[in-house]
Amino acid sequence: EKGNYRHFMQKEIFEQPTVVAQTLRSYLRPGEQRVALPQIDFDISAIDRITIVACGTSYYAGMVAKYWFEQFARVPVDIDYASEFRYREPVLPDGGLALFISQSGETADTLAALRHCRKQGQVIAAVVNVPTSSMAREADLLLPTHAGPEIGVASTKAFTCQLAVLAALAAHFAVKKGLLNHREEAIIVDHLLEAPACLNAALDHDEEIADMAHLIAPARDVLYLGRGADFPLALEGALKLKEISYIHAEGYASGEMKHGPIALIDDKVPVIVLAPSGPLFEKTVSNMQEVQARGGKVVLISDKAGIEQAGEGCMAVIEMPKVHPLIAPLVYAVPVQLLAYHVAVAKGTDVDQPRNLAKSVTVE
Ligand code: M6R
Q1: Is 0.90 surpassed by the pTM of this model?
Q2: Which of 67, 95, 168, 280 could serve as a FRET partner for 75 with CA atoms 20 to 30 Å apart?
Q3: Which of these, 118, 143, 119, 141, lies nearest to 129 by C-alpha position?
């Protein structure tokens, strides 16, 4: 039931602090400050390549995980859309780990890719929200998300729970590969445990984002920019907006702007920039200035330091708490979800049942 909420999507956005905490509980041992995965009967340190396969929002969670696995655990990752995977005849390493990500556990292309990998002798891991689903049953290593039933067609809480599991998994790989000592593992565990509070802080901006919706609702096109692990968030933000408000939106890696999409910029195209402060912030600021010099209207989503440095001249800013890079994608998911939600409400579309879409895509 929707309770006091107007839509399931809104309810599910607000459930995120609770369900992310619930999910993290089964992957972390807070007392010992350790990451603890479900029983695994294969040697993680022997895995030297991971293949990730998923669709839609789950694919974007996989893209974020690629950054994490490579950065923290130094394990190379290949990632494919499930609908492309089998047909490109991928070369799979002997005994490699294939990781499938799916809210429903029933998406036809993802399930077919899983079965393909099984035939190719891969170890099958699945991050799945529905425990009784086909993927959950067929995986060697089931990594459940505890988001609870997700009713809104636009995925929200399943996404942040997927990220929570994938962050813990990447940290676990890093420990097993000898790249994190106990003290460093403890620091990561503490940061992950802060995620629910940071999600709450992000949700505090709900009203402010609702007030901003009228700036975006009239647009025909919207661009989202992000860098590093926040680049997939730009893609996710664009997908959310398209799905429920029917506004054309595209996500780009910030540095790619000048290689084409900047030609679209004028004062009618809002540009949403996802940019936590950090080593790459300066570069994103110059990408923003390129947009502003062409009359583009920027909405900057950053932390206090980022907004102090680059907020001037923006059409609007949304201030996120300052967070560790490992949890930034979880926290920055909230403002992009809220923005899509409020724009859709402003446009009067059917938020929970957008046209042409099904919750679970069971045809290839
Ligand atoms: O159930 P799955 O996670 O496998 O679903 C994958 C996509 O169909 C899904 O994420 C879709 O893109 C959502 N509607 C996005 O909000």
Answers
A1: yes
A2: 280
A3: 143
